[in-house]
Write a structure and sequence with these properties.
alpha+beta; five-stranded mixed sheet; 10 helices; 58% helix
Amino acid sequence: MLAVAADRSARDAVSPRDFRAMLSTSFGQPVPGLESRFGATILVPESFPTAKIRGTVGLTALTVVGIAADRDRIPSAAEEAHELLDVATRLHRPPGMYEIGDLAVEYQLTRPGPGRDRLASFLDPVAEFPDLISTLRAHLNNGLNRRLTSRETHIHMNTVDYRLRRIYDLVGLNAHDPKLIWLLQSALVVRDYQSMEQSDTVVR
């Protein structure tokens, strides 16, 4: 089972329908699926090697989630796959093929509940300073490498250090607290997901 998000980055981008045709050609047999302007649900036989599917995805700029499912689980698996796809696209994950293990943490963090609500408000003291949020996002994305963060944000490493200390002070945690990075990363995932959720609501 594959859930596919439409690529709207370019007019000549590979569409979900084109991708399904590519799979049919690659495996030498028709591949059933349903398409819409938002994406597609594609049913691939269990005999199709995951590596080969992943290779076909790699020829496109599509974001795809794959889930293995027995025949009687197809409806629920399709729903699960599209929920995972929603997480991947809202969090701006790069194009490619994802499986549940790749998005399990993000998926759980973005499910409604008191834990998500707490994480959503964790960065409120920082949110009024856009430069701090952008520095934090760059620092986390760069594996906590100060030099790479400095290069990406075009600021001196001393400024990176200052901004990080300011973030730690604002959220009320010590820089040496072992759960600090985990909390910051989790809170940023929830915040990004919810900001996209609110944007979608406004568009609709």
